[in-house]
Amino acid sequence: MRRRFFLYLLTALLLAPLALAGGLRDSIAALEGVSRVEELHTERYAGKYLVHITQPLDHSRPEAGSFTQRVVVCHAGTDRPTVIVTEGYGGNYAMLPHYQDEVSRLLDANVIFVEHRYFLESTPPPPAGWEYLTAANSASDLHRVTTAFKALYQGRWISTGVSKGGQTTLIYRAFFPDDVDLSIPYVAPLCRGVEDGRHEEFLRRVGTKAQRRRVENFQLEILRRKESMVARLEAFCREKGLTFRIPMAEVLDYCVLEYAFAFWQWGTHVNDIPSTADPDDEMLFNHLTDISGPDYFAENQPNAPFFVQAAKELGYYGYDTRPFSRYLTISGAGGYMEKLMLPDSAGTPAFDPSTYRRVYEFLRDNDPKIIYIYGELDPWSAVHAPVFRKKTNTRFFFQPLGSHRARIGNMPEKMRDTIVRLIRQWLDMP
């Protein structure tokens, strides 16, 4: 009798996770809009699922058609908080078995990871045009996902995203302020124009004077060696299969102009810059392409939807050509995004500042719980979210000497502890 009981108990324990997985998978499949659910392997969560959700192309006009959006669900427990990751691009990395969002790790929380419309598996089928790629529609995508999954996860909700994903977090909060209890955008820009103008000023004062001089001297040295560098760039692009709308000498100009932004954005150390006295052109060229490669300006690149969004309503940055004008082939860099990076199908979009104004006014007129994470030396910090006085629920944290890689986990210990304590306090967690 006792042996039979233990065998029964052992069998029940072995089958329990399978029963839970099957039950959860069926529960997800029953949610509104879900067309398919697949179980995924995970090393971090109790369960993980690939979920396909049918979304309207235009949430204000359902008759316009639909597309399938990719959502990845990482299950920690129905009694745990839920993090909705508002990805700004594609979501392939969330499919990896070791994927774990930082906020989810800190809180032992579920994750609802939402790939952005028009990227990778969430790209509408032809003939859907760019007119459906709007901030309002992407926010409504997230609202529909959140509304569906709240039937399963009824605890606290947190929205978070990195870079353009952080920008998406802010837009989502402005459009649907009551969907989540707390937002944690990382390194999120809020631009007010296609070439906002504040980034260039930031680069003129970032770091120390000696560091800025070393960066600029490297850029100038590349341009002084233009003949040799263009030949190397042509060979490099031939090998990579990169094509451009402009001559190679102009491509080199843009790589040089981009260098300072990319250098500070990704936290490159000044000691990594080769000596400009070095006669080895190959060494200097390799460093240039490591930091600001020509693929960024190439045709037919996968981030075309982002550039369409930036040109239409999200904004971007420009280049200060004055320190280099003596050596540049181009006469100026104004309008470079339309010239180089927008797909022909996008036409010539006029920038609409209404998304910027909506987010700005929402943050000005309300006091939502938001924790901002930025890097001190990141050029995107030039266009950080606005700071308003007398807000009790908004906190900014700038990682000292930090870059676009700033995260809660790599903050100084006291700052990290403050952030984690604040998150738990605002979510009523012990």
Primary descriptors:
disordered N terminus, 14% strand, alpha/beta, 13 helices, 430 residues, 40% helix, nine-stranded mixed β-sheet, Rossmann fold, single chain, 9 strands
Put the structure in a nutshell.
This protein has 430 residues and is α/β, with parallel strands linked by helices.
Secondary-structure topology with pairs:
Elements: H1 2-29, E1 34-39, E2 47-56, E3 66-75, E4 82-86, H2 102-107, E5 110-114, H3 135-149, E6 157-162, H4 164-175, E7 182-186, H5 198-203, H6 209-224, H7 226-240, H8 248-265, H9 281-291, H10 304-314, H11 336-341, H12 354-365, E8 370-375, E9 394-399, H13 413-426
Parallel strand pairs: 4-5, 4-6, 6-7, 7-8, 8-9
Antiparallel strand pairs: 1-2, 2-3, 3-5
Helix pairs in contact: 3-4, 4-12, 6-8
Give a written overview of the molecule.
38% of the residues are buried. The radius of gyration is 24 Å and the shape is globular. A nine-stranded mixed sheet has the order 1-2-3-5-4-6-7-8-9, with helices on both faces. The longest helix is centred in the first third of the chain and has 28 residues, at 2-29. The chain is built from 13 helices and nine strands. It folds into two domains: 22-192 and 354-426, 3-Layer(aba) Sandwich (Rossmann fold); 198-346, no CATH class. Strand 4, helix 2 and strand 5 (110-114) form a beta-alpha-beta unit. The protein is α/β, with parallel strands linked by helices.
